[in-house]
What we know:
Layout: H1 2-8, H2 11-19, E1 25-26, H3 27-31, H4 38-50, E2 54-59, E3 62-67, H5 72-83, H6 87-106
Helix pairs in contact: 1-4, 2-4, 2-6
Organism: Methylopila henanensis
Protein name: Metalloregulator ArsR/SmtB family transcription factor
Domain HTH arsR-type: 1-87
Amino acid sequence: MQSIFEALASPVRRKILAYLAHAELNAGDIAARFEMSKPSISQHLAVLEGAGLVTSEKRGKFVFYRQNGESLANTLAGFVQEVCPVGRPLREESAALGKLQKGSSASGGGGG
């Protein structure tokens, strides 16, 4: 439980969770949304994964991340982000990306 609270204590990690609310993104796509180095984003992702809030899957040369939907902490964080003026737009972007990803996989298109 301590690792979850430590992971959620960071605004950057809460934003990453919001981006992953409805879509999976590779580490580069996540890093492109922040003004920090890729190694710093990788450290944040490792903390989130260590807390069980996200899962990763290597596909080719990319590592894709998605929220662990079975985590109570993610459920609670999602609720808070819905009313948060910072988190809500990020979750809306995630929902739009999720729809695009589902449409792409339904039509047989591959991800990047």
